[in-house]
C-alpha cells in the first residue's frame, strides 16, 4: 500500500499472482478511479504534516519464498506458514496477501521491545468474514482458554463473529493472573469502513486506543505491563493467527502493516497511513477481480453468456448499483434474453457509492437448441430413473424424448399435466426405468432427445445400459451415521451386533469414516438413505464447520450453499456422487445456509425429494434484516448428481423450522420437524422441540401449522411438543425408522423407533412406537400424550451421537461394517432330488436372499449347465447315468458362494419301444411285433396283445420280433402293452398302437 510518507526508499511493485491479473482483464475495464470513501475520516484531524519516527518493520506484502519482506531496511522479515505465491495478488501495483484460513506469518522479535508500554501497529485490511479470528497479535503461546498454555497477548480481530461484537472490530489485551484469564477488551467501536480500512492500535502507558482510518473509535485502560507479553523466544507474534487454539486462521485481505516501538500521536498516525485514494484504488482492483466470477455465475466467460448474470448489491463491503446499456438483452438485474437471433455485445456498468465505475463487456449468445443438447449428460449405466430434462439448461429449448424400448425406459409424455398439488414432474413422465430381473443381465436402450427453440430443431441419441435389479436379502440389522460435537465435525458410523436396534457399537475402530478437506471442511447432520431399488446407500451432510471459528450468526447468513453427497454399496467405501472432491450447490445465491439435508422417495414423481433448512434473503447481497427465520426448501433429484433449481418453498409458516425427516405409512407421508423458535410458534406449543404432520402429497407446501388442514392439499398438524416433557431437554434432528422383522423390539410387527437429538445433553434418545400409533395421532388423541409414549433409558445407541441417521441393512452389509471390509460372498447350499430321470437342484443362500446364476449337473461322462429360475434348475438325465451331482456355479456378481450337492441315484425308466406290422397267412391275420431295447442295460420284456402274451430277453441295443396269430381274416386297430425290467433295476411300461388288417 502506498502511504503519504515513506520511511524507506520507494520500491518497484511486481505482479505477484498472474492468475489474478488474468481475471482483472477478462470482460471488464476501469472507467474512473474509485474516489476516497466516507473515509477520509482523518483529514480533519491530520493537520499539517507530522514528523514520523522510524518504523521497526514495514510489511507491504511483497515476499520472497517463505519470507514476508520487511522493506524498512531493518531486515525483520516475517516467516510464512501455509502461504504460497498463489496467496498473493497484485491490486493496481500494490501487493495484497489474501489470507484464506490457510496460513499465517510469524513476526520476529525486536519489533516491540517491552521496555515500556508504548507501541503502534498500523494494519490495513478488508474482510467480509465475521469469525473468531486474529488479524494480528503480539504474544506467543497457542493453547486453550484460561490456561497458562495460552500466552499473554495484545490482538486485533478486524471483524468479529461474537454476539457483542458481531461484524465489529474486536481488540484487547490479556495477561493471565492467578485464576483470572486476564482479558481486557476495548469497547465496541463499530466495524470496518467499506473496502480497505486502516486500523491503528496505539499503546501509551496503561492506555490502548484503536483508530479506524485515523479517527479514534475505542479506548481502554489496563494495569498490565508489555514486558509480561513480549515473548522470550524468536517470535514476537503473528499476522493471521490466533493464540486461542480452537480459533480458525484469518480470512481477510491485508495490504500493509507497520510497527513502531513508540506511541504515535493521532497526527502522526494520520500522516503515516495510506491515503483514502490509495486504499480506494486497491479496493477497486480487488473488486474488479472478485466481481467477475460472481457476476458470470454458470456462464463460462464474459464472451459466452447465455444464462442470467448475478449483479450483487455489494462486494468486499462496497455498495454497487448496476446499469445495462441494452436492457432488452441484459436487464439491470442480470436477466439475459433468450429471444435474440444473433450474438449481441452488451456493456454493463457497476457504479460504487462514490461514483467510480467498473465496466463489463459481455457477449450474449443467441439461443441454440444444440447448446441445450450439448449440456445433457446421461449415465452410461444406470440403476436409477433417468433425469430426462424437458427444458434446456443453456438456452431453454423445449425437449421431448423418445425411447427405443418404452417398456425399459419411458419416453416423455406429450400429454403430461402438472398435478393440482405439489411439485410438477420436471421430466414429464420420462426416464422411468423398469430394470431387468436379478439374474437376467443388463439391457441397453437408445434415448433420443428432440430439442426445439423457435424455428430451430435438433435431436441427439444417447445409449444407456439399464442395470439388472440388485440381489435382495432380508434386513438383519441396522447402521448409523452421525457427527460427535461442534469440535468434531466428521462422519462416524456404528452398526448393531445383530437384528436388535439397541445394540449399536462403533465401526472402523471408532475412527471417523469421512473427513472433509474441501469447502468449509466441516461435516454435520449426516443422513443415510437406501436407494429406491436397494442397490446402494446415499449419504448427505451439511457443509458447515463451527470448529473452524464460524459463528452461528455467520453460519446462517453466509453459510454454504452446498450439500455434501456420497454413495456406497457396503457403507464402508464411500465415493462422491459427482466424481469430485467437493459438495454440490443446490441452494440459491440469496440463501443464507443449507442445513441438515435429508431425502425421501416420492412415489408420484418417481424421484427423490431432497429437503433442507435455509434462511432466504431478498437477494444475493444478503443485506436485508427482515424475514430471516429458517424455513424448509426442496429440490428433486434422480441420481444425487443433478438437482432441480432453484429450490422451491416447502415449509414457510412465518416461524423458524429446521430438521425435517419423513416416513411413509399407508397412503400418507409423516413428517417430524423441529420448531426452531425459542418458544411457541402459533399452534406449536414449545420451541426447540419436535412436531408431527401428515400429507398425501410429499411435496405439498405448508404455510401454517394447522390441526384442521386438509392432508390431501397440504400438511396437517397431528402432534406437537413431542419430546421435551419426556426427556427434560431441547431436541432437534428427529429420525424415524421402521424396525426389521425379527427384531425383539418389534413384537407387534409394526414397530418403529423415533429418535431425537438432545444436543445439549449427550445426543440421541429413543422412543419405541408403532406405525399404527403414528398414523392415528390427532389433536384429540396425540401420540405424545399417550401412556406408552416413553423415552427409553440411555444405552444401546452409538456413543455421543449428534444429529445423524439410522438405516436397516442386510447381513452382508452388517458383516462388512463390523469387519470393515467390502461385501463378501455369503454361503450357499445346493439340494438335489431325482424323480425318475428328472433331477432338480434347489439353491439357497445363507442370508435368505435371492440366488441367481447356473447349476451344472454331472453324472459319468454326462454334464449339463442350466440357469436358475427362482433358485431352482432341472435336467433330464440320459439313460445309463445312475448317479448325479449338482454344483451351483455362482453368478457374475459373486455375491453368493458356490456349493455342491450330495450325489443322488437315478433309477429312471428303461428305454424300450415297440413297432407292429401285419401279414396274411392262410387267409388269417398275424401281428408281427418288433421290440427294441434302446437302453445300455439288458432287459427282460413282456409283450401283451389281445391275441396273447410273450416274454423276451433283449440285450442292450437289441431288437427282437414276436409273432401273434389272430385266427381272424380281419382285425380292427388296437394297442399292445410292453413292460420290462432292466438288469440295473430300471423299469418300463408302455402302450403302443396296432394297425387294422384284412386278409379276406
Mean pLDDT rating: 92
Query: What helical percentage do the residues reach?
Result: under 10%
- Give a quick account of the main beta sheet: strands, pairing sense, barrel closure: 9 strands, antiparallel
Number of strands: 63
Low-confidence stretches: 1-48
Number of helices: 9
Strand order of the largest sheet: 3-4-5-8-17-10-11-12-13
In short:
With 1000 residues, the chain is mainly beta. It is built from nine helices and 63 strands. The radius of gyration is 41 Å and the shape is elongated.
Describe this structure in words.
It is a single chain. The protein is mainly beta and 1000 residues long. 7% of the residues lie in helices and 38% in strands. The protein is built from nine helices and 63 strands. Strand 3 and strand 4 form a beta hairpin. The longest helix has 21 residues, at 276-296.
Amino acid at each position: 500500500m502506498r502511504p503519504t510518507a515513506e520511511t524507506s526508499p520507494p520500491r518497484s511493485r511486481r505482479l505477484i499472482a498472474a492468475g489474478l491479473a488474468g481475471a482483472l482483464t477478462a470482460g471488464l475495464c476501469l472507467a474512473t478511479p474509485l474516489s476516497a470513501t466516507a473515509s477520509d475520516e482523518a483529514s480533519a484531524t491530520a493537520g499539517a504534516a507530522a514528523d514520523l519516527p522510524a518504523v521497526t518493520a514495514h510489511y507491504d506484502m511483497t515476499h520472497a519464498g517463505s519470507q514476508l519482506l520487511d522493506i524498512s531496511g531493518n531486515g525483520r522479515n516475517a516467516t510464512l506458514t501455509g502461504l504460497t505465491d498463489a496467496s498473493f495478488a497484485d491490486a493496481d501495483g500494490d501487493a495484497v496477501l489474501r489470507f484464506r484460513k490457510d496460513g499465517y506469518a510469524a513476526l520476529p522479535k525486536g519489533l516491540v521491545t517491552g521496555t515500556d508500554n508504548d507501541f503502534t501497529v498500523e494494519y490495513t485490511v478488508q474482510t467480509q468474514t465475521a469469525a473468531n479470528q486474529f488479524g494480528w497479535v503480539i504474544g506467543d503461546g497457542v493453547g486453550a482458554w484460561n490456561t497458562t498454555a495460552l500466552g499473554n497477548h495484545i490482538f486485533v480481530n478486524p471483524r468479529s463473529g461474537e454476539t457483542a461484537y458481531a461484524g465489529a472490530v474486536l481488540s484487547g489485551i490479556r495477561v493471565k493472573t492467578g485464576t483470572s484469564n486476564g482479558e481486557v477488551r476495548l469497547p465496541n467501536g463499530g466495524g470496518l469502513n467499506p473496502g480497505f480500512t486502516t486500523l491503528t492500535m496505539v499503546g501509551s502507558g496503561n492506555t490502548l486506543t484503536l483508530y479506524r482510518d485515523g479517527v479514534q473509535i475505542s479506548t481502554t485502560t489496563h494495569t498490565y505491563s508489555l514486558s509480561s507479553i513480549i515473548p522470550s523466544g524468536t517470535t514476537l507474534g503473528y499476522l493471521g493467527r490466533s493464540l486461542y487454539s480452537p480459533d480458525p486462521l484469518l480470512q481477510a485481505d491485508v495490504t500493509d502493516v507497520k510497527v513502531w516501538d513508540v506511541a504515535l500521536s493521532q497526527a502522526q498516525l494520520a500522516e503515516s497511513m495510506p491515503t483514502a485514494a490509495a486504499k480506494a484504488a486497491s479496493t477497486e482492483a480487488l473488486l474488479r477481480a472478485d466481481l467477475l466470477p460472481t457476476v458470470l455465475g454458470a456462464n463460462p466467460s464474459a464472451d459466452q453468456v447465455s444464462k442470467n448474470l448475478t449483479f450483487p448489491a455489494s462486494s468486499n463491503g462496497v455498495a454497487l448499483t448496476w446499469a445495462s446499456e441494452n436492457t432488452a438483452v441484459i436487464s439491470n438485474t442480470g436477466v439475459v434474453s433468450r429471444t435474440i437471433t444473433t450474438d449481441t455485445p452488451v456493456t454493463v456498468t457497476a457504479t460504487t457509492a462514490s461514483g467510480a465505475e467498473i465496466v463489463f463487456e459481455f457477449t450474449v449468445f443467441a439461443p441454440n437448441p444444440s447448446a441445450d443438447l450439448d449440456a445433457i449428460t446421461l449415465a452410461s449405466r444406470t440403476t436409477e430413473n433417468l433425469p430426462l430434462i424437458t427444458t434446456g439448461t443453456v438456452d431453454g429449448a423445449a425437449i421431448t424424448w423418445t425411447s427405443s424400448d418404452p417398456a425399459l425406459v419411458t419416453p416423455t409424455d406429450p400429454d403430461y399435466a402438472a398435478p393440482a398439488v405439489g411439485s410438477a414432474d420436471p421430466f414429464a413422465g420420462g426416464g422411468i426405468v423398469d430394470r431387468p430381473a436379478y439374474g437376467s443381465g443388463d439391457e441397453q436402450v437408445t434415448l433420443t432427445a428432440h430439442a426445439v427453440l423457435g424455428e430451430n430443431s435438433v435431436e441427439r441419441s444417447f445409449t444407456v445400459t439399464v442395470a439388472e435389479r440388485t440381489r435382495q436379502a432380508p434386513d438383519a440389522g441396522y447402521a448409523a451415521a452421525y457427527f460427535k460435537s461442534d469440535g468434531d465435525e466428521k462422519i462416524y458410523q456404528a452398526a448393531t451386533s445383530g437384528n436388535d436396534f439397541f445394540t449399536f457399537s462403533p465401526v472402523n475402530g471408532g475412527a471417523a469414516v469421512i473427513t472433509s478437506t474441501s469447502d468449509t471442511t466441516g461435516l454435520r447432520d449426516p443422513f443415510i438413505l437406501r436407494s429406491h431399488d436397494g442397490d446402494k446407500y446415499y449419504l448427505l451432510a451439511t457443509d458447515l464447520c463451527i470448529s473452524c471459528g464460524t459463528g452461528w450468526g455467520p453460519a446462517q447468513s453466509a453459510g454454504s450453499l452446498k450439500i455434501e453427497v456420497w454413495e456406497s454399496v457396503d457403507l464402508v467405501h464411500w465415493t462422491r456422487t459427482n466424481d469430485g472432491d467437493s459438495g454440490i450447490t443446490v441452494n440459491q445465491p440469496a440463501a443464507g445456509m443449507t442445513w441438515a439435508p435429508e431425502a425421501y422417495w416420492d412415489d408420484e414423481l418417481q424421484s427423490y425429494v431432497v429437503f433442507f433448512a435455509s434462511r432466504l434473503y431478498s437477494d444475493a447481497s444478503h443485506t436485508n434484516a427482515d424475514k430471516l427465520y429458517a424455513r424448509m426448501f426442496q429440490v428433486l433429484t434422480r441420481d444425487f448428481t443433478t438437482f432441480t433449481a432453484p429450490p422451491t418453498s416447502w415449509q414457510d409458516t412465518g416461524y423458524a423450522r429446521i430438521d425435517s425427516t419423513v416416513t411413509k405409512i399407508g397412503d400418507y407421508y409423516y413428517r417430524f420437524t423441529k420448531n426452531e423458535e425459542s418458544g411457541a410458534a402459533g399452534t406449536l406449543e414449545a420451541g426447540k422441540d419436535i412436531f408431527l404432520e401428515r400429507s398425501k402429497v410429499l411435496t405439498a407446501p405448508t404455510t401454517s401449522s394447522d390441526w384442521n388442514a386438509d392432508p390431501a392439499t397440504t400438511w396437517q398438524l397431528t402432534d406437537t411438543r413431542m419430546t421435551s416433557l419426556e426427556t427434560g431437554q431441547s431436541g432437534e434432528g428427529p429420525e424415524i425408522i421402521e424396525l426389521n422383522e425379527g427384531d425383539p423390539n418389534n413384537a407387534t410387527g409394526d414397530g418403529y423407533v423415533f429418535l431425537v437429538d438432545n444436543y445439549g445433553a449427550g445426543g440421541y434418545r429413543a422412543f419405541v412406537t408403532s406405525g399404527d400409533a403414528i398414523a392415528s395421532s390427532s389433536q384429540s388423541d396425540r401420540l405424545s400424550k399417550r401412556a406408552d409414549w416413553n423415552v427409553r433409558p440411555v444405552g444401546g445407541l452409538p456413543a455421543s451421537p449428534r444429529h445423524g441417521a439410522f438405516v436397516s441393512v442386510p447381513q452382508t452389509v452388517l458383516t462388512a461394517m463390523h469387519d470393515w471390509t467390502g461385501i463378501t460372498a455369503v454361503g450357499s447350499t445346493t439340494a438335489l432330488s431325482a424323480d425318475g430321470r428328472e433331477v432338480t437342484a434347489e439353491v439357497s443362500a445363507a442370508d435368505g436372499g435371492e440366488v441367481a446364476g447356473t447349476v451344472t449337473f454331472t453324472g459319468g461322462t454326462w454334464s449339463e449347465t442350466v440357469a436358475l429360475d427362482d433358485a431352482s434348475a432341472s435336467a433330464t438325465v440320459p439313460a445309463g447315468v445312475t448317479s448325479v451331482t449338482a454344483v451351483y456355479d455362482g453368478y457374475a456378481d459373486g455375491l453368493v458362494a458356490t456349493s455342491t450337492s450330495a450325489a443322488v441315484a437315478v433309477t429312471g425308466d428303461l428305454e424300450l419301444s415297440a413297432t407292429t406290422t401285419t401279414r396274411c397267412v392262410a387267409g388269417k391275420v398275424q401281428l408281427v411285433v418288433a421290440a427294441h431295447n434302446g437302453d445300455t442295460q439288458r432287459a427282460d420284456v413282456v409283450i401283451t396283445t389281445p391275441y396273447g402274451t410273450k416274454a423276451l430277453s433283449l440285450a442292450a441295443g437289441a431288437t427282437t420280433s414276436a409273432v401273434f396269430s389272430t385266427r381272424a381274416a380281419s382285425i380292427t386297430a388296437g394297442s399292445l402293452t410292453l413292460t420290462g425290467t432292466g438288469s440295473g433295476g430300471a423299469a418300463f411300461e408302455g402302450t403302443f398302437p396296432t394297425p387294422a388288417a384284412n386278409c379276406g
